[in-house]
Amino acid sequence: MIRQANAIDFWRGFALVSIFINHIPGIYFERLTHRNLSISDSAELFVFLAGWSLGLLVSSRKGELTAPGLVARLGGRAMTIYAAQILISSIALAILASAAYAFDNPLILEWHNAAAAFQDPALTHIGLVLLTHQLGYFDILPLYVVLMLAAPLIALIDKFARPALVPISLLLYVSALVVPFTAPTWPVAGQWFFNPFTWQAIFVLGFALSRDEGIGAVVRRKMRLIKIVALQIVLVTAVLVWFNWFPDPTRLPEPKLLFLNGKSFLTPMRLIQFLALAAVFSGSYAYFAPWVPWLADFLSSLGRNSLNVFCVASLLSLCGQIVRYLYTGSLPTDTIIVIGGIGLLRLTAGVSEWRDRRTTNA
């Protein structure tokens, strides 16, 4: 039986469509996505919802899932995501190589940190397996692997020392910004695009806010006031983004990461603005879903099958980049790419649910 549309799946589907479009730089329709008026984007939403979903899982099955059971369940999920990362990275390299060969354009081999895979394939493929070498636009799933591996620890801290969970997470977050530190890449020297030591904070906050106890209970009681403050933050940051009014990094005090707008380290500016955006739109699904049920069903279908849809969306975005590079982007071309891509995402979700029904009825 396929679940009915719900807010989590809906917003996850919304994030997936936004990611697909925004991963094709320069495409006309990216100006219609919310990141044009927001410091944060769909990556924050996606990770926050992952933490929220974990919180619901733990609270709804607390009596059933023992600590070993939780480790096994979430460890299995981590391995599934890891396998997906290896698969789409391999296919992405094949797509780049095929395009470079078919159109006699070796420059394509250098896109998105892929050059090392062709120039030094032995070490780079070891790095791909170890997740220490990541292709551009294919670098969020390694973060998910780390978060899923850490999820049992988060759940156990929540069970035995709930008041300490968010402070521990925020302490790690601030430490990674102040020192700073992150996960290194290899064999090409660098760092992970999504720093797991800072991005864990939004995952943990999603987890904590999903609960009816602790910080989640406080937020629910004060939601009216929070919405008033959050709306002001959202409006002010929208103006900042629209006019690109951000401070000169060279004039900021140390540690600069506390004041910069940085995605890799999920700096406080982005984290606070996302939380404000989430507060403003919290509860909105219940109001507009009855008015646009087809949209609710469509996006929820994508969200229910988020891993499969994300993998296909990432590869389709890469194909869209290549098409625009070779044939020059235009509104007709961009329209075909977006309509065709979203159609294939819907097909991916449909096939995934058909397979699930077959498995359930078998």
What can you see in these coordinates?
With 362 residues, this protein is mainly alpha-helical. The radius of gyration is 21 Å and the shape is globular. The chain has 15 helices and 2 strands. The model has no long low-confidence stretch (mean pLDDT 93). It has one domain.
Q: In short, what is this structure?
A:
With 362 residues, the protein is mainly alpha-helical.
Instruction: Please tell me what the overall shape is.
Output: globular
What portion of residues is helical? 55-70%
How would you characterize the largest beta sheet? 2 strands, antiparallel
C-alpha Rg (nearest Å): 21 Å
Task: Fill in the keyword field for this structure.
1% strand; 362 residues; two-stranded antiparallel ribbon; mainly alpha; 2 strands; globular
